[in-house]
């Protein structure tokens, strides 16, 4: 986080930790980051844990998933695909887990549409930033 905006990610990997190796994590700087880690919302949770920030959710924190309700979960996935903190977007099941919606089960049309929507949102935001 730089100036209250996500500016990249730090990647640790399990095999290095398990082997007890002293290897520095990988760092990736980015203008936009997408959490597509699904149900565990790893990027969102790391942001909360490390920076204690307020998310763009009703409680200001990750809301967590509700039970499985495929039809409603599918519809809510698109609604929940959006920026959750400056520079951080959520898509797919990460979107539903972040905003407290239902799990989807074996329906994936919403997942594809969610991916397209997050790409469009980032393209739009990028064009706005370039025009400033």
| Major sheet | 3 strands, mixed
Record field, number of beta strands:
5
Overall average residue pLDDT: 93
Helix content: 40-55%
Order of helices and strands: EHEEHHEEHH
**How many domain units?**
1
CATH topology, by name, is FAD/NAD(P)-binding domain
Number of helical regions:
5
Shape: globular
Summing up helix and strand content along with how strands pair, one would put the structural category as: alpha+beta
Please name the CATH architecture.
3-Layer(bba) Sandwich
| Radius of gyration from the alpha-carbon trace, in angstroms | 16 Å
Q: Strand content of the residues, in percent?
A: 5-15%
What secondary-structure arrangement, pairings included, does this model have?
Elements: E1 8-11, H1 14-19, E2 26-29, E3 33-35, H2 42-51, H3 70-80, E4 82-85, E5 88-90, H4 93-99, H5 109-131
Parallel strand pairs: 3-5
Antiparallel strand pairs: 1-2, 4-5
């Amino acid at each position: 986080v730089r100036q209250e905006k996500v500016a990249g990610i730090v990647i640790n990997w399990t095999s290095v930790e398990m082997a007890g190796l002293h290897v520095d994590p990988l760092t990736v700087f980015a203008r936009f980051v997408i959490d597509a880690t699904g149900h565990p919302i790893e990027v969102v949770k790391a942001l909360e844990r490390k920076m204690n920030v307020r998310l763009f959710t009703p409680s200001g924190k990750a809301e967590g998933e509700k039970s499985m309700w495929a039809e409603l979960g599918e519809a809510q996935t698109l609604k929940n695909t959006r920026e959750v903190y400056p520079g951080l977007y959520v898509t797919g099941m990460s979107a539903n887990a972040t905003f407290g919606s239902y799990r989807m089960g074996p329906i994936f049309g919403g997942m594809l549409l969610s991916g397209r929507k997050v790409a469009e949102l980032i393209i739009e935001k990028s064009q706005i930033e370039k025009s400033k």
